[in-house]
């Protein structure tokens, strides 16, 4: 058998012997966990457990980032905001600095967690920082979407001037890249801002432009929301018939697409309209339809408002017994919601404390890391100087050695030349002597044969 063939067989045999059989089992476990996460698991806490296991066995960097990102999302949904922020920071640490898109996406997630925590100012500050980066990078779509998000936050804060500024910026950017979805959403929120300021003409213009765009992209969910908002605008203007017409359009769409939550709002609004028209039977019908959906969805806060509306309606028709019962229900629910809010506020304060503590630890760790980096850098500089010194010493030794070698060679050449000259001189002396002897011999011979 040829030597090459034997070598190959040996290598294959060696790889089989040294391969880790458990890696095949881990690979199967990874795929199984991913499948469970994707299709079967509904519990966020169970998803968190699975992701933690994946982090233990799946060492691919890109997957690690994704796992930490998902952990941040699920922890946030579980209202474990401290863990969510920790997971976000860890994911950011693993991102390659070149991958700016991934890093900024995670920074956005971090800002959204601050927002859910109720730390709106910190959230806005973070969003604005990211927005500047998007604009500097020339990422218009991302900047447009983020401007829309920031505008929505400012609207909820009641800062309408800031909201309108960012929403207009979003619209301008969305138009420049022809992104109909972002444009339609930003126009709708802009209409809501104008409506809140009772600038009805500007609000109507924004709503109608948004409706025109939404029809062209066939976004039924958004269209239903726009009809509802436009109906509320007409109601505020006192145009009850137009309000009713647009609420009914919203009802039709939300029934078709199965959007129960928004359907409950539409029914509630129709209850208000028919109460204003003094059609109390229809008003009660729509309020009860709204209440039924809210009970099914366990939307306690929305139920409170509907209880109050129905109680007021019973008062109008003189049914004081039912009015009292519904009023009592609404106050009991209000007390219950107040207790829930109090507990959530306590938890939020605890989370804020943990967040501040975590950030203080991060700051301390950063300072320690900076000091360590300076020490390492100083040590590295000393090593570099030592290496440079050793290199220069060896270079000097080499130059001296080279010079000595050159001088030695030159001396050898001179010695050889001197020997050659010496040999030539001896040869010349010998020849000169022979010539002189020949001349003297000739003279003597001549003298001997000539007469005296």
Structural summary, described in words:
The chain has helices at residues 3-18, 22-40, 44-57, 61-77, 81-94, 100-117, 120-137, 140-157, 160-177, 180-196, 200-217, 220-237, 240-257, 260-276, 280-297, 300-317, 320-449. The chain has 17 helices and no strands. The protein is rod-shaped and about 185 Å long. Helix 7 (120-137) packs antiparallel against helix 8 (140-157), helix 9 packs antiparallel against helix 10 and helix 10 (180-196) runs antiparallel to helix 11. Helices cover 90% and strands 0% of the residues. The chain is an all-alpha fold and 452 residues long. It has a domain at 30-122: Alpha Horseshoe (Serine Threonine Protein Phosphatase 5, Tetratricopeptide repeat), CATH 1.25.40. Mean pLDDT is 82; it is low at 9-21.
List the main descriptive attributes of the protein structure presented here:
452 residues, mainly alpha, Serine Threonine Protein Phosphatase 5, Tetratricopeptide repeat
Q: Give the CATH level 1 class of the domain at 30-122.
A: Mainly Alpha
Question: How much helix, percentage-wise, in residues?
Answer: over 70%
CATH architecture of the domain at 30-122: Alpha Horseshoe
Gyration radius from CA atoms, angstroms: 45 Å
Number of helices, counting only DSSP H or I runs of 4 residues or more:
17
Mean pLDDT: 82
H/E series, N to C?
HHHHHHHHHHHHHHHHH
List segments where confidence is low: pLDDT < 50 over at least 5 consecutive residues: 9-21
Please report the total strand number as a whole number. 0
């Amino acid at each position: 058998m040829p030597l090459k063939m034997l070598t190959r067989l040996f290598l294959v045999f060696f790889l089989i012997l040294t391969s880790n059989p458990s890696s095949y089992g881990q690979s199967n476990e990874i795929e199984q966990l991913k499948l469970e996460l994707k299709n079967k698991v509904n519990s966020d806490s169970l998803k968190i457990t699975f992701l933690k296991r994946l982090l233990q066995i799946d060492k691919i960097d890109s997957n690690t980032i994704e796992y930490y990102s998902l952990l941040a999302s699920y922890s946030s949904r579980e209202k474990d905001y401290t863990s969510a922020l920790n997971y976000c920071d860890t994911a950011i640490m693993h991102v390659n600095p070149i991958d700016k898109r991934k890093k900024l996406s995670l920074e956005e997630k971090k800002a959204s967690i601050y927002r859910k925590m109720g730390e709106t100012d910190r959230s806005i500050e973070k969003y604005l920082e990211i927005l500047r980066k998007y604009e500097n990078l020339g990422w218009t779509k991302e900047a447009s979407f983020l401007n829309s998000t920031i505008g929505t936050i400012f609207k909820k804060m009641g800062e309408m001037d800031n909201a309108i500024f960012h929403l207009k910026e979003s619209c301008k950017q969305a138009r420049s890249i022809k992104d109909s979805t972002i444009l339609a959403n930003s126009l709708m929120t802009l209409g809501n801002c104008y409506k809140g300021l009772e600038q009805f003409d500007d609000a109507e213009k924004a709503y109608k432009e948004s409706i025109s765009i939404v029809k062209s992209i066939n976004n039924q969910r958004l269209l239903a929301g726009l009809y509802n908002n436009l109906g509320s605008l007409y109601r505020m203007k006192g145009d009850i018939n137009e309000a009713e017409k647009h609420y009914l359009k919203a009802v039709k769409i939300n029934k078709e697409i199965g959007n129960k939550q928004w359907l409950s709002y539409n029914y509630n609004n129709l209850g208000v309209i028919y109460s204003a028209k003094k059609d109390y039977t229809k008003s009660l019908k729509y309020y009860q339809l709204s209440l039924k959906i809210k009970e099914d969805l366990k939307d306690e806060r929305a139920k409170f408002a509907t209880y109050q509306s129905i109680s007021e309606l019973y008062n109008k028709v003189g049914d004081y017994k039912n009015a009292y019962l519904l009023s009592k229900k609404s106050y009991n629910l209000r007390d219950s919601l107040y207790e829930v809010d109090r507990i959530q506020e306590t938890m939020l304060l605890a989370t804020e404390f943990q967040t501040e503590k975590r950030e203080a630890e991060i700051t301390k760790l950063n300072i320690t890391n900076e000091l360590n980096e300076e020490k390492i850098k100083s040590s590295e500089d000393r090593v570099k100087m030592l290496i440079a010194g050793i290199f220069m010493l060896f270079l000097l030794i080499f130059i001296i050695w080279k010079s000595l070698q050159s001088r030695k060679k030159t001396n050898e050449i001179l010695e050889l030349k001197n020997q050659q000259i010496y040999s030539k001189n001896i040869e010349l002396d010998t020849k000169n002597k022979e010539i002189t002897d020949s001349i003297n011999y000739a003279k003597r011979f001549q003298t001997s044969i000539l007469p005296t």
